[in-house]
Write a structure and sequence with these properties.
0% strand
Length: 495
């Protein structure tokens, strides 16, 4: 079945209700579902014997509008993160010393590596929730929520305990100039205390994406990122706290978003339903955690390879000089803006194709893959046109440092090409998450990573910063090619 909005109406303050209700009403008008599609009680989580029979896959009306209704809030939610990164860059980039900007760039790489390494909390949770939703399996759904929350808190605690070792390892691996190291240390040891909150945000987002409640993901991200942006302006621009101000703004915003996410889950499922799932012995069976870890383990390795590839960008750029490192940070923000925007259509794929996968409907699964892929391609072209028309002007807004501007402008042709080259890998990530095909995600990433490592040093040595980012484009292209080649094997599991 396609259970896009099966849960109880959200009892939330008016702005939250409006965003979620508008999206929910639109989708409901365009999707015909079974008579028991609102199968969740606010007081119980047990599945009725007739639930499966009363919730068949039904004909879908206006699929393109359905995709947009799910993807657009996800795009807004995802894009808000790099937009805040751009605010950070603006706040720091107008300081005279480029070491400040380089330190924020280095700190961002470290935390992206740390937190994105645990991105399986979002991706693995989304696949499990979407498939359970498609099967009308409320017990598995609620158990999946609690397992993801427990894993997020446990991993967050480990990161806090190991923070000194993590920083030393990161500095040794990335080898920045000493001036950058000192500023990065200040930034790191403040922001690391947001670790449990950041991982909780991942887990909650995974649940909401799996249920296609992207309007609520948007609400959560807007609260996080607007708070972050406002506090960064206050702490950096008005109070002059420098890189420490950026760190404090992020810390406060992450904890606020985590608490909001937990509150949203209570409002959606009901406190009694969540408590019933929490006290159920089945929720805490090791077999359930082994399945979660098995899926997430592959995604973890895949993400480690991805973050290693991106970290190598800053390492190579740092060896070229502070200006090159600062310029790479700016381009990295552009890359994040592109990737997280295109991921909106990947999230639509996760929810729609994942639900079809959960009930074993091969034709419906493939249909959603193709339709969301078309929209992702359209979005990639729009991104390319946007950077072609306004990329240089955007760079001028971000920094007053002439040398950094020149370096970024020289890379703009590669930035323009990036969304078209990389759209396949972002979209196929959504496909593989929908199918909880973690092993395939790992293998295809490993193939692309191997090609990237072979090309990185020769290209950067020959063509400097342009060669470095040219290698990144080849890496993204290889990811999509490997995933496309593997796709028939994945689809055959349903045929």
């Amino acid at each position: 079945m396609i259970n896009i909005y099966p849960l109880a109406p959200l009892q939330a303050p008016l702005p939250f209700r409006i965003i979620d209700r508008r999206i929910r009403e639109f989708i409901t008008k365009n999707i015909t579902v079974g008579p028991n599609h609102r199968y969740y009680s606010r007081c119980a989580v047990k599945r009725t014997p007739t639930m499966q029979a009363d919730a068949p896959v039904q004909k879908l009306n206006q699929p393109h509008r359905t995709i947009i209704a799910i993807a657009f809030p996800a795009i807004l939610a995802n894009s808000s993160a790099p937009l805040v990164g751009l605010v950070d860059t603006w706040a720091i980039g107008h300081l005279a010393d480029p070491a400040n900007l380089a330190a924020i760039g280095l700190g961002s790489v470290i935390f992206n590596f740390i937190f994105w390494a645990f991105g399986f909390l979002r991706m693995g949770t989304t696949g499990i929730i979407a498939q359970a939703n498609g099967r009308n399996d409320s017990e598995t759904l609620v158990a999946g929520i609690w397992r993801s929350i427990a894993l997020a808190l446990a991993l967050g605690a480990v990161l806090l305990l190991l923070q000194d070792l993590i920083f030393l390892w990161a500095i040794k691996a990335l080898a920045p100039p000493e001036t950058v190291t000192q500023l990065t240390r200040e930034y790191f040891h403040i922001r690391i205390w947001a670790a449990p909150a950041s991982l909780l945000v991942y887990a909650v987002s995974g649940v909401l994406f799996g249920l296609a409640r992207t309007g609520l993901v948007l609400v959560q991200q807007l609260v996080l990122n607007i708070t972050n942006a406002v506090l960064n302006v206050i702490f950096v621009v008005l109070l002059g706290w420098g890189v420490a101000g950026v760190a404090w703004g992020t810390l406060i915003a992450q904890w606020l978003a985590a608490l909001l996410g937990l509150w949203l889950l209570v409002q959606i499922l009901g406190l009694n339903a969540l408590l019933a799932g929490f006290t159920s012995a089945k929720t805490w069976l090791m077999s359930g955690f082994r399945k979660l870890v098995a899926i997430n383990g592959y995604i973890f390795v895949r993400t480690i390879l991805l973050m290693t590839a991106l970290s190598l960008v800053m390492r190579v750029a740092g060896a070229l000089g502070e200006v090159e490192m600062a310029a790479s940070h700016v381009v990295m923000q552009y890359m994040l803006l592109i990737s997280l925007g295109l991921d909106g259509f990947a999230h639509a794929t996760e929810a729609l194709a994942g639900s079809a996968w959960g009930v074993g409907k091969a034709k419906l699964f493939h249909r959603w893959v193709k339709l969301t892929g078309v929209w992702a391609l359209v979005a990639s072209i729009a991104y390319a046109l946007g950077f072609w028309l306004a990329g240089t002007s955007l760079t001028a807004l971000l920094t007053d440092i002439t040398a950094v501007r020149i370096a970024v402008d020289a890379l703009m042709p590669l930035v323009i090409a990036l969304p078209i080259v990389a759209v396949a890998c972002y979209q196929f990530d959504g496909v593989y998450i929908a199918a909880t095909a973690g092993a395939a995600m790992m293998v295809t990433m490993a193939i692309a990573f191997a090609v990237y490592v072979l090309l990185l040093n020769p290209m950067s040595s020959s063509w400097g910063l342009e060669g470095l980012w040219g290698a990144v484009l080849i890496f993204m292209a290889m990811r999509g090619i490997a995933q496309a080649i593997w796709y028939p094997k994945l689809k055959s599991k349903l045929d």
